[in-house]
Amino acid sequence: MSTKKRAAVIYFPGRVDRKKLSAAVDMTVLPLGWEPTLWLPTSEDETGGVQVLRALAQGATRLLIVGGDGTVRECLEALTKTEDYDTRRITVGIVPAGTGNVLARNLRLDLTDLRRSVIRGLTGNRHPIDLGLARVIKDDGTRTELIFSVMGGVGLDAKIFAKTDPRLKKAIGWFAYVEGGLRSLPTLFENLKVQVDNREPRHVKVVSLLIGNAGWLPGNLSLMPDARLDDGRLDVAAIGPRRFWNWIGFWGRVTWGNQLLRLSRVGKQLLEASANVKTIENLSGTKIRVTPDRPVHMQIDGDSIGMIREVEFEVQPRAIVMRL
Ligand SMILES: [Mg+2]
């Protein structure tokens, strides 16, 4: 196997200044004598996964993903589903170019300095992180497996995703939608059976249930203060309206969001408006199976995937190596 290094830049053309990007990449790569850089723009039909496969086929060792949450998610999915994918050889860097940038925020990446992001993404320190795998049975009975980096959710948050204008969602962040939804929609509880690892399944009644690999959302809102990207576990948070403050009382040990969460000013305002988030203590695990009593909406990393009958989330420990 060749030991030559090769960068592949997968980028969303409309979202980035190609000249600036080229200059930053060349400045980083040329002095190191790597193989010629591969430039792989995404398109309407090919939104990241195909580009990853092309990059690997042409010997790329350092993937640089320039895009938003959807592009990042799809690239990571294609990468980790590739049979001979080897984390010792292939690393991933991200240049945030969306408006949510949930993974980039959780990695504390600089969201404004393109040049710095390129240098770090191609030549920064190795940093293994976990990913989440969602095994989904859709409403129509079809099965699918999806990779996520930050979180998946069922219930109202996912339903709102499915029904709102993506531009508006991007402008104000999806949690704002959940908030807005809780205030304006008739409250709709979902009855879910939740099983963590091999523990006794429990029945919960919530508006939304979130399963997180990492805990930060746009707006610097921390839903799951204990969630870490590299602890080999997934965490659980539940969302419901304050006016039914006992909605999750049967869980026993839960922590009220406002007391615990480290919040930005905006995040705090959002939370205090009317909704509440409870991180469910001692409820992290490697595998979390959620079975609703009727089909529910689901989202992963902010992408709606429609109605589902059942989903099993499983952590994929240290599935990728990031350059930071
Ligand atoms: Mg974790």
Topology:
Layout: E1 6-11, H1 18-29, E2 35-41, H2 49-57, E3 62-67, H3 69-81, E4 91-96, H4 102-106, H5 114-123, E5 126-138, E6 143-148, E7 151-155, H6 156-163, H7 166-172, H8 174-184, E8 190-196, E9 202-206, E10 208-212, E11 216-217, E12 221-222, E13 235-241, E14 254-256, H9 257-260, H10 265-273, E15 275-280, E16 287-292, E17 296-300, E18 303-323
Parallel strand pairs: 1-2, 1-3, 3-4
Antiparallel strand pairs: 5-6, 5-18, 7-10, 7-17, 8-9, 8-16, 10-13, 11-12, 13-15, 14-15, 16-18, 17-18
The site of magnesium ion has 8 residues, from loops.
Write a short abstract of this structure.
This protein is of the alpha+beta class and 324 residues long. The protein has helices at 18-29, 49-57, 69-81, 102-106, 114-123, 156-163, 166-172, 174-184, 257-260, 265-273, and strands spanning 6-11, 35-41, 62-67, 91-96, 126-138, 143-148, 151-155, 190-196, 202-206, 208-212, 216-217, 221-222, 235-241, 254-256, 275-280, 287-292, 296-300, 303-323.
Task: Give structural notes.
The protein is of the alpha+beta class. The protein folds into two domains: 6-124, Rossmann fold; 131-317, Sandwich (Tumour Suppressor Smad4). Helix content is 27%, strand content 36%. It has ten helices and 18 strands. The protein has helices at 18-29, 49-57, 69-81, 102-106, 114-123, 156-163, 166-172, 174-184, 257-260, 265-273, and strands at 6-11, 35-41, 62-67, 91-96, 126-138, 143-148, 151-155, 190-196, 202-206, 208-212, 216-217, 221-222, 235-241, 254-256, 275-280, 287-292, 296-300, 303-323. The strands form three sheets. Strands 5, 6, 7, 8, 9, 10, 13, 14, 15, 16, 17 and 18 form a twelve-stranded antiparallel sheet that branches. A four-stranded parallel sheet has the order 2-1-3-4, sandwiched between helices. Strand 8 and strand 9 form a beta hairpin. Helix 2 (49-57) packs across helix 3 and helix 6 (156-163) crosses helix 8 (174-184). It is elongated and about 60 Å long. The model is unreliable at 245-275 (pLDDT under 50). Magnesium ion is lined by residues 130, 213, 227-229, 231, 233-234.
